Fold:
Amino acid sequence: MLSSSFLELLINNGADTGEAFIWAFKHTDIDSTRLLIVCGADVNKVDPIEWSPLTWACFIRQEHIMNNRCLSSEQESIIDLLISNGADVNYALQKVCGSQYDTEKESSIELLINKGADIYHTVENGSKLLKLLKRDGKKECVKILQLYGRKKKKCIIM
Structure:
């Protein structure tokens, strides 16, 4: 494991921490994730395809589910750690839904909504996420978002 002072030096000099977050998630290394965060790594920094560490964690988690591999509690803890340190669940939801990858997305959408993502949030260009997804023909995601959005509303209203 890298020392925190060395990791801090790398981060302060512009090292790409995205790959480190992905590696930590793939290897279920919560300690490395925690160290990256403590040393100042940005949990919302996006890579060249505009995915954040949380988006990647959702994608990798979904691959595990699709391939019938068990999810470890450490993987879930890493997702919780990213979110509790400011990872943007709405951004991740937008990227999961907009992804061109042919993966089943329901589990990731459900996870992000349960962690606080707002299906009605406004994206960076001022449009509503649902409206953009409808425009782009993302029928599967629209249907899932509306389903989970209704479930969540039913739980909140008394």
